[in-house]
Amino acid sequence: MKAYSARTAIRRLAIADAAFRLGHRLAFWTAAALLVWSADILVATMTAMPETVFHTIVMTVLGTLPAFLLAPCHASLGLKAVRRIDRDTAIESWLAYRGGPACRMLESRAAEALSIADIAGFGRPRMTRAARVALLSVASTGLCVFALTQIISIRAGYGLSLLYPDKSVDAVVARRSLAEGQPMPPYLMPDSIGLQPQGRDSPGARRSGIPEDQLDQQGARPTFGRPDTRDAMDDAALPGDGDSRDGTEPGDTQSNLSATSGQPSSTGSRRPAEDQNGDRAGSEARAPGYTGTGKAMSDSPLVDYRARLERLFAESTGTETALGSEPSSATVAAAIRQVFSSFDTRVVVGQTDDPVTARVLETWRAAFSAGGLR
Amino acid sequence: MTYRDSHQIDMVVAISFSIAAGLALWFADRLLEAALHPLINQAPIWLALAANAGVEELLRLGMALATIRIIRKLDLEMGLATLAVMASCSLAILENASYVAAFPTLDAYWRLGYALPIHVCAATLYALATAAPRRAAARIPRWMVVAISLMAAWLWHAAFNIAATYAPFTLVAPVGTILNLALLAALVVASAIRFGYWSIYATGRF
After folding, report:
1. Cβ of B11 and A59 within 8 Å?
2. Which residues of A touch B86 (CB under 8 A)?
3. Which end of chain A has less Cβ packing within 10 Å, N or C?
4. Distance from CA of A127 to the nearest CA of B (A)
5. What pLDDT does residue A13 have?
């Protein structure tokens, strides 16, 4: 082996050794991430942890990978790698020699030692016993917590949860029905969409004359207008159909949409029908230095509840609405208030009496309200 | 208590300090950017973004220099300079959390690929520039290496801030992720070689 080969071999030795050590760190990170991720799912399953908090914790865990890889390392790693394969300190002598008449001799001896080590393999750096125990403990704890999490998640009716558990009413009811061998409720039957109109509607249901593919979309929102007219949502959904039949201006349509849906009509608005379809599509999230598609982490449950309630009501009573064909807005508002009265939460927010807290809040606002997020 | 135990406790303390330093750095960034806001408010957005990136990079370099000063003062191993990298990592994690709070969308996960590595790579570059031992044959003075690394990190950071504002998200996220992760991988290996395998690297036979 010549000098060039000795240099190549020593380079390969250092890179292989570094790769193994980085692999150890990666293993530690994987074990720790598994533990925290499983615990995160467990807490999300057993408590009402917000989905945003769940994802923040997951992002934090994933974001610690560079910290694990770049944690400080000892300066002696290279020397340890050399000493592991060095016969008669030939390689170390060659590396330490600054140049002189013995250089060729030392190089040939180092080349010989390196070539032998190369054939047998450079060997792997070994973890200390304490490190091995720590790694195995964290990994096994993570696996146990993960298994426990999945058992609890399945028993709670959420199924296997690799991310935030699916706590929607539909999913839980459907899974429980399947688990108990009972037929699913008709509104959750997968083929209920494909049924003929005669089988789909309850006796006495009013035929709207709307095509089948729009029935679900219509079911996702209330129809408060006259049956023979399209409402503002339909106008907004069909941008190509510019001539509105009731003569409403586009701006008025937007304001009607906002007022009707209870959601902002500017950027960030989401139509209930879209929510019902579950695509979670929203407007683009944008700030200086950041853009995103605006795909929400979770659906709005209120829209789902409203659509589900109307469908259940129509299936059980045979009528689409108890408010009549032309309810006034006041009637609708009163009905919604009555139906969702159990959701009503009253929070009394009083002014803080603590002057120190008030001053801190004011300072915080002054410091951070001026600039955007970077 | 053995020497190894005390060393491990020292490391835990040092890492805790670096995480706290990262949080402090994030607040310092925010305060300085808020203070500069009236000055750059009228400037074009791209200029404001570049200025903010400059503020962050200058503060990060300041932290790297402070770290190396402490290391030299206490006569510690130079490899501890990567504690400043951990501080930047905690800063990036905090920034990601703030973005999730501001924009609770799944797109925030892309920041792990194209935003977090920017902070970590810049800090690693500064650690290598300020703390890594240098071969005897090195001719470029260290201050110049530090200045070049600052300029490189600033340009890289500003370029991605501007791209994230003007370029389509569907392009910036995957391309930025690939570029930044590749750079991060290279810097991780470089850092390990320079700090951990210096005894081989310094010989010039590497």
Report:
1. no
2. 67, 70-71
3. N
4. 14
5. 87
**CA dist., res. A228 & res. A201, Å (int):** 19
Does A269 have pLDDT greater than 50? no
Min distance B141 CA to chain A CA atoms (Å): 23
- Confidence at residue A195, expressed as pLDDT on a 0 to 100 scale: 46
> A257 by DSSP, 3-state: which?
helix
Residue A215 predicted with pLDDT over 50 = no
How far apart, in whole angstroms, are the C-alpha atoms of residue A20 and residue A75? 16
Taking residue A111's Cβ as centre, other Cβ atoms within 10 Å add up to 22
Question: Is residue A74's pLDDT more than 70?
Answer: yes
Distance between CA atoms of residues B95 and B110, nearest Å: 13
Lowest-confidence pick of A22-26, A191-195, B168-172: A191-195
Q: Which residue of B has its CA nearest to A79?
A: B199
State pLDDT tens for residues A341-354: 766 566 666 666 67
- Over range B199-203, report the average pLDDT: 76
Using a CB-CB cut-off of 8 Å, the residues of chain A touching B184 are 66
For tokens 């009607």, what's the residue? Answer: A256
pLDDT in tens, A228-265: 444 433 444 444 444 434 444 333 444 343 333 333 33
- Residue B162: count other Cβ atoms within 10 Å of its Cβ: 20
DSSP string for B104-152: -BGGGGGHHHHTHHHHHHHHHHHHHHHTS---TT--S-HHHHHHHHHHH
Q: Quick one: closest CA in A to B112, which residue?
A: A63
Domain regions of chain A by residue span: 3-148, 213-227+254-339
Domain boundaries defined on chain B: 3-201
How many CB atoms are closer than 10 A to CB A16?
Answer: 16
Query: What does the alpha-carbon distance between residue A81 and residue A252 come to, in Å, rounded to a whole number?
Result: 75
How many beta carbons lie within 10 A of that of residue B2, not counting itself?
A: 7
Scanning every residue of chain B, which has its alpha carbon at the shortest distance from the alpha carbon of A110? B205
Contact (Cβ atoms closer than 8 angstroms) between residue A31 and residue A131: no
Distance, in Å, from the CA atom of A227 to the CA atom of A209, rounded to the nearest integer, reads: 9
Q: What is the mean pLDDT of residues B138-154?
A: 92
Q: Could you tell me the two tokens for A274?
A: 């879209």
Distance CA A65, CA B184 (A): 11
